[in-house]
Each structure stands twice: as structure tokens, then as C-alpha cells.
Amino acid sequence: MSRVLVTGGTGTTGKALVRMLRDAGVLVRVASRNPAAGDPDSVRFDWNDPGTHGPALDGADRVFLLPPVESVDPLPQVGPFLRRAERAGIRRLVLLGSAIVLPNAPGAVEVGAQVRAQAGGVVLRASGFMQNFLRPHPLAERIRRFGEIRTAAGDGRLGWVDAHDVAASAAALLTEVSADTRSDYLITGPHAMSYPQAARIITAQTGRRVRVEPLTQDEQAAAYRAAGLPTEFAAALAAVERGIKEGHEDRVSTAVLELTGRPPRAFTEFVAGHADEWAR
Ligand SMILES: NC(=O)c1ccc[n+]([C@@H]2O[C@H](COP(=O)([O-])OP(=O)(O)OC[C@H]3O[C@@H](n4cnc5c(N)ncnc54)[C@H](OP(=O)(O)O)[C@@H]3O)[C@@H](O)[C@H]2O)c1
């Protein structure tokens, strides 16, 4: 049976991917820690419970892989899963990775290397999601409540991408399994953009005044901890903001166009499509 297992299938990217695959007539199995009751196409899957991994893979021949979220070392959970997937004869495996490499996180880099080494393995290195500007992300909550973005990234730019374009890129790779693909794609939106530019676009499109308050890296880490992120992960994300400030993430690619046949959504269009999101 030809079927795609979508891990993270209830999340921002996974949910959009499931819809796109079903629209294309592809059989999908949605993995979740809390599968929909009575849905035969939903399966229990928990990275922290290896006993759920085999049954989730059973009968699948393609996998969308969303590694454990908010972890600086996904390797202990993902490594054994990859070996199991290989034994199960998975012929296409698409990893949702990140364009930004977290500091002191060699496990994430190794997961990418292991996926690339696997037959049919593809890594999508996605840039920052435009959905971070939507609730429940703390960035969005702060804009909504205080009309403010607090960041240590200064005027540094990032190739922000709509997560739906990430899902569409994954759908293209999971629908047509051809050998004629690369094993690694940088997935970005059409333009690199700084937080001050984002604030100006939201203000211009919605009338909601949004200002940017500069933070130091330490202040940024404390803000992430206060928003509930684990200490180590908060520190890593704050270091990333500094990297953005220094220009390390200022890049865009044409991968979405290459994979899906249409250009990625620009932030102005994204904001227009969510205009009520930042109302007071
Ligand atoms: N946000 C960004 O700017 C950005 C940029 C580049 C890459 N990424 C990557 O994108 C990923 C997040 O993707 P997303 O925003 O689409 O997801 P999301 O909306 O945050 O949803 C998280 C998903 O992970 C599942 N999940 C959580 N804990 C799990 C566990 N222990 N075992 C199995 N599944 C678990 C959840 O499913 P259940 O709750 O149903 O189990 C849910 O489907 C991260 O890996 C991140 O590195 C994000």
C-alpha cells in the first residue's frame, strides 16, 4: 500500500501538508500524540515512546519527518527512527529542518546528514516561518497586546517563509517520488526581511502601529524563558537572533518555485490574508 506518514501532522506545517496530499489523492496517515478517536487514518505517535514508531510506519512507503520540537538534540529519538524507516523500505523521507543552525546543537546537524545519506532522503532547511507573527506564537501575542516586537536581531534580515509554502514543497516531493531531486533545499520566502521592516508592513497594511524594541542577547533569552521555553532552547534561540543581526541568515532561494511551480508568498500578501490578527 502506498501511503505517506505525516509526523507533526496536527501542527502548522503538517496540517497544511495533510490537506494538500489528500487533495492530490494521496493516502495519508496523520501521526499525533493524541490521534483523532475513531479515525482509521490517524495513528498515535510520540517521539518519547519508541513503541509507537513501528506501528506508525507500518504500511507507509513515504514519510514527512518533523523532529521533536523545542529540543536541541533530536538525535537520540530520530536516529533509531531513521534506521527503522530504512528497514521498512521507506522510499521517500522528507525532513523539516531549519535554515538556522542552533549553536551547540550537533545532534540536529547529524539528523540532517543521516536523512541525506538515506535513499530518497531530502532535507528542507526552512527559514523563519511567517506564522511566528500569528498567535499563539509569543511574538504575535506581544504585537497584539502591546504593539511591540522585542528582538536582539536589530536590522538583520531573514528569508521569512509561509509555512504553507514549506508544506507545498514537501507535498511536491512526497507526491512524485522521482530520483531527479536534490537531497537538500533551502526553503525561503521571496525576500529577506528585518523585524523593523515587518513592523512597518503590518502597520501599513492594518493600521496597527507596531514598534521594535531592541534587546540584548541575554534579555532575549530571558524573554524566551518567560514565554515558557526550556532554558537551553531559549539560550540557543537568543544566540540565533544575534546571528541574524550579524547578517548570517540574510539569504533567499528559488526552491519553492522549483519544487511547486509557483513563487512563494510575500510577507505583504501574508499580512493582508491575516489582517485581523494584530487588532488590539
Ligand atoms: N517556526 C519557525 O520559524 C521554524 C523555522 C524553521 C523550521 N522550523 C521547524 O518546524 C518545526 C515545527 O513545525 P510546525 O510549526 O509545523 O509545528 P507546530 O505547529 O509547532 O506543531 C508541533 C507538532 O509536533 C507534534 N509533537 C509535539 N511533541 C511531539 C512528540 N513528543 N512526539 C510526536 N509529535 C510531537 C505535535 O503533534 P501532537 O501535539 O498532535 O502530538 C504537532 O503536530 C520545528 O521542528 C522547527 O525546528 C520552524
Automatic annotation (TrEMBL):
**What Pfam families is this protein classified in?**
NAD_binding_10 (PF13460)
- What InterPro entries does this protein map onto? Ergot_Alk_Oxidoreductase (IPR051604), NAD(P)-bd_dom (IPR016040), NAD(P)-bd_dom_sf (IPR036291)
Domain NAD(P)-binding residue range list: 8-176
* Protein name (record): NAD(P)H-binding protein
